[in-house]
């Protein structure tokens, strides 16, 4: 509760400073919007459904892209973790590719897929695939070897061994990577949408710029942060905590 | 019973090769249900010239196991003792098919086995219970992998949990249990796949003395009730004498069978029995030589550094 009070005071002061600066009218409102203006933009956006539509479109792209990169990343990560040759070759390539901002894939994606949903999906997948792959790989390596041995000892092999033993055993080690993958995918999606105009939150952001509507820009930014926080801080943290408790890695 | 314990124990250390176990001579057995002790010409398990060498980091070869010859009869309780680092745990991994020998064969009922199979279940020193599954699901796991029908699985899970006195913990997670209870779960999980041979790797080493005593009694009871063949690895000689029909003593690096001892003491035995202590003494004297060798190597190495 004390923590909550401190946070409330912090944000209260932040908004008060904002109001003060806006009231002093140092900058024109299209450069520095008032909190009221941002709130109105938020309200209007939800009232005319444009925000809802943008959220729905962006989330659909996210879910599709993220699911794809989790599946691909798991296969790739397992391959890299279980094969020395792949680890030395593909593994190294993956790590070096991680320094490439995923938006750099957009020109390539547009050339390959045209200005289509596929192009944006490609950017999202490229944004999170690498962190999922690397998480899966390190998860497999950090996972205590005893579980794999115990599984084989009890007659599990092939896919059942992976599904019933190796995957659950490595889950506590890969969940943070999955979370990171989601965050990267989210960033990639928004940047992709900003450049390549077709609905979504990123496009809404650029529309605000085009209309010189700074209030809308800030309103959409708040939305992006809020959604990121809800998924990251609430959904993933809950999953993480639940896994740790069930796996006996954290006090119940 | 008590007169039996006081009776002169026939303690016959014999050298490498087959040794006869005169368990039927012991009146102490009569308190336990008679188990299938039919004399078979083919041993339940035979290790034929098992050797294992590793490549070390500096490129040289390290011989871990050297020409192990061992036969185990159906229903026999064999204990393997040796100093730490003698390769006795490795040998169990080899028998379980989790590791490959450099040379030699493991035969079960005359057939060569070289991959994991549910006819031989190893209870690991670290147990390897699955923390994401409940106690019941852990016990069920091997049967599920074997494709046993669900109703039968549940029935057997109940049965084996009852056998180790853990029925009311079926829905608990393993990290909610004490060390001794986890040990029982591992035992139930291994038994539930109904293996012919149970391989146990220092299962009670990490337990307190009271829990260990209790589990000794229970293991002996379960062994008698189920008629399983058990190969039990330990560094504790008393434990080996307490439990085994026969004790095989391993040398320190490379692991070789130094000597085999038949333990013809009546059952049930207790760790503090004078006869157990006396037999243990004799084995311990031989083991000490090997322990000294291992210490020499350890401290000698440190001195060089």
Task: Give a topology summary.
The complex is a heterodimer of chains A (252) and B (305).
Chain A: H1 2-23, H2 35-47, H3 50-82, H4 84-97, H5 105-113, H6 117-142, H7 145-153, H8 158-195, H9 200-210, H10 214-246
Chain B: H1 2-6, E1 10-14, E2 45-55, E3 61-72, E4 77-81, H2 88-96, E5 103-108, E6 111-112, E7 120-123, H3 135-146, H4 150-163, H5 179-192, E8 197-201, H6 209-226, E9 229-234, H7 237-243, E10 246-250, E11 257-264, H8 274-304
Parallel strand pairs in B: 4-9, 4-10, 7-8, 8-9
Antiparallel strand pairs in B: 1-11, 2-3, 2-5, 5-6, 10-11
Helix pairs in contact in B: 3-4, 3-5, 4-5, 7-8
Percent of residues in beta strands of chain B = 15-25%
Q: Structural class of the secondary elements of chain A?
A: mainly alpha
Task: Provide the number of structural domains of chain A.
Answer: 2
Rg on CA atoms of chain B, Å? 19 Å
Any idea what the CATH architecture of the domain at 25-119 and 197-208 and 228-305 in chain B is? Answer: 3-Layer(aba) Sandwich
- The CATH topology of the domain at 25-119 and 197-208 and 228-305 in chain B corresponds to Rossmann fold
Greatest chain-chain interface? A-B, 21 and 27 residues
CATH class of the domain at 25-119 and 197-208 and 228-305 in chain B: Alpha Beta
The fraction of residues in strands of chain A falls at under 5%
> What is the fourth-level CATH superfamily of the domain at 25-119 and 197-208 and 228-305 in chain B?
P-loop containing nucleotide triphosphate hydrolases
**How are helices and strands ordered from N to C of chain B?**
HEEEEHEEEHHHEHEHEEH
**How much helical structure, as a percent, in the residues of chain A?**
over 70%
Ends distance of chain B: 56 Å
Which word captures the global form of chain B? globular
The radius of gyration computed from the alpha-carbon positions of chain A, rounded to a whole number of angstroms, is 22 Å
Q: Which parts of chain B are unreliable, with pLDDT below 50 for 5 consecutive residues or more?
A: 1-39
**What is the CATH superfamily of the largest domain in chain A?**
MetI-like
Strand order of the largest sheet of chain B: 1-11-10-4-9-8-7
